[in-house]
TrEMBL record:
<dbReference type="InterPro" id="IPR000182">
    <property type="entry name" value="GNAT_dom"/>
</dbReference>
<protein>
    <submittedName>
        <fullName>GNAT family N-acetyltransferase</fullName>
    </submittedName>
</protein>
<dbReference type="Pfam" id="PF00583">
    <property type="entry name" value="Acetyltransf_1"/>
</dbReference>
<feature type="domain" description="N-acetyltransferase">
    <location>
        <begin position="115"/>
        <end position="250"/>
    </location>
</feature>
<dbReference type="InterPro" id="IPR016181">
    <property type="entry name" value="Acyl_CoA_acyltransferase"/>
</dbReference>
Amino acid sequence: MDIIVQRSVVAQLSQRPQSVEVGPFVIGWDPSTDSRYINYATPRPDAVITNTDVARLVAAFREIDRLPRLEYVTTCAPGLERQLLDAGFGVEARHDYLVCSPDSLTMPAVPDGFEIAEPATDEDRAGAVAAQNEAFGGEPTATPADVARIRRTQDNGGVVMYARGPDGSYVGGGQASPPGEGVTEVAGIAVRDAFRRRGIAGALTAGITARMFANGVQGAWLEASGEDSWRVYERVGYAATGKRLYIALG
């Protein structure tokens, strides 16, 4: 599964508004944002990587004025971490990734009074992004570029969903990437503080995953960064499968 997930990341980055191939690496980036979580590189699985390749990768990031940063499945480039550390990179995080199949998915009930749905208007898209931003500790706003990014995800075969409360306010959101290698990444599952621990995150995760399976995707993967999210994902059918590394220069 490690190689399939890593290939799917290569495919994701290749679908960014801009992508750059640098030897064994692919950089995906978006001119409308400098977010490190959108602009990053990944290696092609099992590629032979030299120190010269790493230096060229850093230079390519400098050329597009973005932070040199990578995300990848560790087993697919076992020597790369040492090369990056020697080049001055620092580890940001090590995350487990979990995988779900159509057979393992469990659909929880949507909490009473709440709605889980796909945005059909830019108002819905902005509401989902604003709720996600607030849940992740940012400002509860969405820019036109954010809305365009969500729309592009939908247009390219990904899925976005929002959670809305009884009063009509947007309380959470999440998305799945356009499929690559027959799988999709589910990401950005977020619920505003006041609405947590009610089952909304699980309903969002399962709803997004189910929609991608209905669209023909064979598997879904996501990352768990803490015990709370781990429990949410396991309850809807995700199981720990492998390790991913986040690493950046500077």
